[in-house]
Design a protein that fits this description.
By secondary structure, the protein is an alpha/beta fold. It has a single domain, classed as TIM Barrel, CATH 3.20.20.100. Strands 3-4-5-8-9-10-11-12 form an 8-stranded parallel beta barrel, surrounded by 5 helices. The protein has a two-stranded antiparallel sheet with strand order 1-2. Strands 6-7 form a two-stranded antiparallel ribbon.
Length: 333
């Protein structure tokens, strides 16, 4: 396993972090709780020490499962827990942003209880709240930091302008944006800003919601409340375009590195300047089997250019992760 240190802290983290959105079940067609706990344990045994979660993942269930798994595992000081705050869910199923001081105080205590811990290593604002001044949010997280309840301050899905306002009030150690071979919007401004200001990037969606796993076929279907049913990437004709890119990337990986597309996609992400951690979502222990194949090699500039050509040639109608954004305001909630 490769490790790095989160900027401005003493937190040493694995460069692959376990993302736990899917084990919360909501938006992923349910979850097997025992398998989820086994998956967390499997990641820890493989050297992954960063576990990323959030209250909104399963309306608290993901945090509860992480708490149970880590309590059983022990060795809390060796584990870096990253969770988030600032999203509310409502009885009608809607989700709204709320990063007010009152909301964050309540959420932090709820997260500590569910995670069975007395501190959180990395505490992140999940989405920018346009109805609460960023300064109020930053002041609140700074207070948590000074109280010792959190060890690092983070944001997620924030623009450079929003991070700039936040940093004027409080330290900012991490930003968690969407980033993968198919979703590269942050290269325009967010990633350069984080590099310039020494903000560690924890990239989520490393496998683009499974597209880059190499397991999907044209007849793959998604059931229940699976979020991919509303993701434009999984709708025709884009789905076929992305699958064509995946196939060509897999052939490239096998020919040049004796790897598969999943391993190539994660290595590509880790090799991007400014990326500290790639968050890899898994629901079953066996999904983590390729982990060792991601470590110990690099993509040179020629390989990077060939990969870009493959994607550009296959994907004629690219689309970003915009559909994931929750409601901007609370007025209609």
């Amino acid at each position: 396993m490769e490790y790095t240190t989160i900027d401005g802290t003493n937190l040493k983290v694995s460069r692959i972090g376990l993302g736990t959105w899917s084990i919360g079940g909501l938006g992923w067609g349910g979850t097997d709780q025992q398998q989820a706990i086994k998956t967390i344990h499997a990641a820890l045994y493989r050297g992954v020490n960063l576990i990323d979660t959030a209250p909104i993942y399963g309306h608290g269930l993901s945090e509860e499962l992480v708490g149970r798994a880590l309590s059983e595992y022990g060795r809390r000081a060796e584990i870096v827990i990253a969770t988030k705050a600032g999203l509310e869910w409502h009885e009608d199923g809607s989700i709204t942003r709320n990063s007010s001081r009152q909301q964050l105080v309540r959420e932090l205590e709820d997260s500590l209880r569910r995670l069975k811990t007395d501190y959180i290593d990395v505490y992140q604002i999940h989405w920018p709240d346009l109805e609460t001044p960023i300064e109020e949010t930053a002041e609140t997280l700074k207070l948590f930091y000074e109280q010792g309840k959190i060890l690092a301050v983070g944001v997620s899905n924030f623009s450079p302008e929003q991070m700039h306002r936040f940093r004027a009030v409080a330290p900012l150690n991490t930003n968690q944006p969407p980033y993968n071979l198919f979703e590269r919007e942050i290269e325009n401004d967010t990633l350069p800003y984080c590099r310039e200001h020494q903000i560690s990037v924890l990239a989520y969606g490393a496998l683009c919601r499974g597209l880059l796993s190499g397991r999907m076929k044209p007849d793959t279907r998604f059931e229940g409340d699976d979020v991919r049913k509303s993701d434009p990437k999984f709708q025709s004709p884009r789905f076929e375009q992305y699958l064509r890119a995946v196939e060509e990337l897999d052939q490239f990986a096998r020919k040049h590195y004796r790897k598969r597309v999943l391993e190539l996609a994660l290595r590509w992400l880790l090799d991007q300047p400014g990326v500290s951690v790639a968050l890899w979502g898994a629901r079953r222990p066996e999904q983590l089997a390729p982990l060792d194949q991601v470590m110990g090699w690099r993509l040179d500039q020629d390989a990077q250019e060939q990969i870009e050509t493959i994607v550009a040639h296959s994907v004629k109608e690219p689309v970003g992760p915009e559909f994931l954004a929750p409601r901007l305001t609370r007025a209609a909630a």
